[in-house]
Input
Amino acid sequence: MTGFVDLRNVRLTYGGTADGTLALDGLDINVKKGEFAAVVGPSGCGKSTLMKLATGLITPQEGTVEVAEKEVSGPVSIAGMAFQNPSMLPWRTTLANVMLPLEIVQPHRSKLRREKASYVARAEDLLKLVGLAGFGEKYPWQLSGGMQQRANLCRALIHDPALLMLDEPFGALDAFTREELWQVMRNLHAEKGFTVILVTHDLREAVYLADKVFVMSARPGRIIKEREVTFERPRPIELTYENAFNDIVHELRGLIADARAAA
Amino acid sequence: MSTRTLITIAPWACTAALFLVWEAAVALFDIPVFVLPAPSDIWAAMVKYWSPIWKNSVQTLYTTLAGFLMSIAGGLALGLAIGWNRVVYAGLYPLMIGFNAIPKVALVPILVIWFGIGDIPAILTAFLISFFPIVVNVATGISTIEPEMEDVLRALGAKKLDIMLKVGIPRSMPYFFGSLKVAITLAFVGSVISEIMAANSGVGHMMIGAQSQFNVPLVWAALVVLAILGIVMYALMAWIEIRMTGWAHRSAPA
Ligand SMILES: Nc1ncnc2c1ncn2[C@@H]1O[C@H](COP(=O)(O)OP(=O)(O)OP(=O)(O)O)[C@@H](O)[C@H]1O
Ligand SMILES: [Mg+2]
Output
């Protein structure tokens, strides 16, 4: 069975095949619809590259990339993306920032003017879901880092993407805010049922949120382990202190340490 | 007095002190007027010649602003083009660096050959000398878009034009308005240089006339007028900058 996101035998070199950087080689990854996948691996192994491939920002030299059973040849536009850097536009209010994708993606783009009110309501609902109710009129620079990251999530979700791509979105936050946003993410996924690929350095984050954790080798990156995480949902945050949870975290930790040593 | 009041008073106090010391020095050392006129002599010249000073100031302002407006139009257009397209950038940037390296004074004789003595060489010198900082600033604003922002938008299927309109152009505005302060000062320099070298009117031309008649207080009066005009134009641009791009000032970590 083919998955929702399906990369097969992908090879990607940056900057010329002869003398460039070989980032990914022989990478296979398969994420089913509605699944929450996490990708972990040594720094520089090609995780961000994987995100760009799956969203069609770059195309591989070898292998195939399929999303929603269609071969990807350009930007997919059914995806929403969020990075560690919230990259809010400082001249727009938070609400206007969140609504930015609607000015790009069809069919919203042509409907935005006529159905402004309903779109604004939608953005405000999202802001409420992430705990930012009433902050829409504030400018991003009036928000804390954690609040900006919440707004960043809203921006990634405003056009109801079937696929959410997150590249270390919680990396720069303090431990408490991070755990709070894990729960926000957990709830959003439960409520909206989109497919998620989350790149992270935080193994507890990966195990807490994901149905499946992919472990990558050092560069050139490929998948060396696919670890199912079967804890029942909704997962309480206390789960992260249980032994079964920590066993998986340690198992992944060992795999990454080995991958780093092998490099 | 609080530091705050002192800070408000300081610029005025320093200016007043400069003129007082100057006046006193001229009296004390008995410096002849043709070497260095006292501020009171300069003031007297300004009062006596207010009508030609006024007319020539208007002329200089006119050529400066005309050249400056051309710079804004040309600088914005070229800056956007260069920031938009890497090939355009690669092609034009070395040319522009080379052009910018030419002292613009050296162009005035050529402009006079082409257009004769009059307003046009002054306007064109003002334009040529002031458009470069605008181009560079606008292009910088556009080409420093965060790669993450670009990825987010491109993944949504945004075209280059979308990215330009939604991010590039708004983002380059603080750079653009910031460059206007520099550009207006340069345009002013260009106009005056051109007037000094070849013109029938303008503050620069008036200075040359006064010099040939050995009317030293008027030469100095013209200089003071230039300083005042320069400060006023700079202040105006600084005010416009803050009005137009408040977000850039507030969003910077204080
Ligand atoms: N635009 C680029 N041009 C050239 N090389 C690149 C480019 N982007 C990434 N690389 C190289 O490709 C490799 C993988 O990069 P990538 O950003 O995908 O790693 P990553 O796993 O996301 O790293 P990190 O965990 O530190 O974020 C690195 O060796 C990097 O130097
Ligand atoms: Mg990365």
Notes: Residues 20 and 49 of chain A are 14 Å apart (CA to CA). Chain A has a mean pLDDT of 90. Chain A touches chain B through 31 residues (CB under 8 Å).
